[in-house]
Amino acid sequence: MKICIVGAGYVGLTTATALAVFGHEVLCVDRDQAKIDGLLQGKVPIYEPGLEDLIIENCKENRLHFSSNVKESIRDYPIILIAVGTPSQNDGSCNLSFIKQVIEIIASTINNYKIIITKSTVPPGTNEWIQQTFLEMGIKDDLFDIVSNPEFLREGRALWDIFHPNKLVFGTKTDRPLEVLKKLYQKGSAPFVFTSLTGAELIKYASNVFLATKISFANEMARICDVFQVDYADLHKGLGMDPRIGPDFLNAGLGFGGSCLPKDLSSLKHSALSHQLETKLLDAVMEINDTQIELYLKKLSTELPDLADKQITVWGVTFKPGTDDLRSSPAIALIQQLLQKGCRVHAYDPMVQLISSDVTSHSNQYESVSNSDALIIATEWEQFLNCNWSEVKSRMKRSIVLDARNCVDGEIVRRQGLQYMGVGKR
Ligand code: UDX
Predict the structure, then answer these.
(1) Which CATH architecture has domain 197-426?
(2) Active-site amino acid positions
(3) How far apart are CA 262 and CA 254, in angstroms?
(4) For the domain with range 2-195, which CATH number is right: 3.40.309.10, 3.30.450.20, 3.40.50.720, 3.40.50.300?
(5) Which atom of ligand 1 is nearest to the CA of 255?
(6) Contact 78, 2 (CB under 8 A)
(7) Maximum separation of any 2 CA atoms in the chain, in Å
């Protein structure tokens, strides 16, 4: 099949590459000329394990192409997959201006039947609005089918997720595009979920909001563990063994970040409110997440009451390990609060070097703790898990280690004479 993907961002590039691997002829377009020029030279603008090799291979095999000529490409392809950004606005609602621009181009160039697939995460009702807009513009409904086909890709594991989906969700208005959609992905044993346009949009939001809810639940339980001096790791273990609950997404710590969970939570709340519906659970999930950093700073202040002019080292600045993405990173928010309190912040991250001019960045994790009053582990990168704690101890000025991701063995750290504080335990 011939597919044009609009948007060479995270979702667009990963999806374009996977569809090329599945044997389709894929053209990925983006109006950012510099990005397309880079991609044509094999330079991938995002870090995703395995993606660069696959892009180069599929370009060589002539299955994957790139172009900045958005209008012509959209006009010439029968299947258009929209993967443009839908960022948050200041009031928490979703900015649909990029989606609207693509829709305008499709509407102004459509001259034969097209399947238009929305991959971007959009608020409930958006695909119905697209359908309606086309009809109002006089485009006959036998000329197009709108499909809502959300993605469930995790950064750092996006290729695994797209090659091993646990379901494929398609929202449609009619059965007409179903046979084509069934052949779009290599589904393995994944079941199809066919639903309405808005049903598919809501499945996507509900998934991310549920994951966020699990994390805030874990963080609230960790607060309770703290009060009763119970190790949260024990609670997590016991809780996760119940197959009805499971251990995933119950890691307590600094809270959730990234480009999706916080944005989708705000956007769904905003959509509900626009229908006069309060979202008490969503509000609580957000509130817990928004106060996690404060909680860890309080923990730190039990050992270091006056933070002004203290040297604090932060290990890990990305929003999670396995990515170079700093968007809505809890570690960055933590650094900002430390700076506001007058701390001298040093940082080390295996993927990110330059954080800000106010922060001293290091390329070596041990060097980064030299002369520090406290070390905070803000992102659980693998290399922190079994590091040389005696070296850390020998370099630090004071010996406070705050494990804000509960990722290292506190006993091992303490054995080196360091003062370890974890999540839901002292
Ligand atoms: C998420 C969804 O998982 C994915 O399905 C969707 O398509 C996009 O949004 P992603 O943003 O890549 O993926 O990150 P994810 O792995 O879900 O982690 C989100 C945040 O939650 C990170 O900041 C992570 O550190 C945090 N997290 C995750 C926890 O605090 N505890 C956990 O137990 C799990």
Answers:
(1) 3-Layer(aba) Sandwich (3.40)
(2) 260
(3) 13
(4) 3.40.50.720
(5) 30
(6) yes
(7) 75
- Number of neighbours of residue 241 by Cβ within 10 angstroms: 10
Select from 151, 215, 323, 324 the residue to mutate for testing ligand 1; criterion: most ligand atoms less than 8 Å from CB.
215
pLDDT digits (tens, 9 = 90+) for 97-133: 999 999 999 999 999 999 999 999 999 999 999 999 9
82 CA to centre of ligand 1 in angstroms: 23
Residues in contact with ligand 1 by the CB-under-6-Å rule are: 151-155, 208, 211, 215, 249-251, 253, 255-258, 260-261, 319-320
| Predicted model pTM | 0.95
Give residue for tokens 């956007």.
Answer: 267
pLDDT in tens, 46-99: 999 999 999 999 999 999 999 999 999 999 999 999 999 999 999 999 999 999
Cα–Cα distance, 376 to 404 (Å, whole number): 7
Task: Pick the residue whose CA is nearest to atom 26 on ligand 1.
Answer: 256
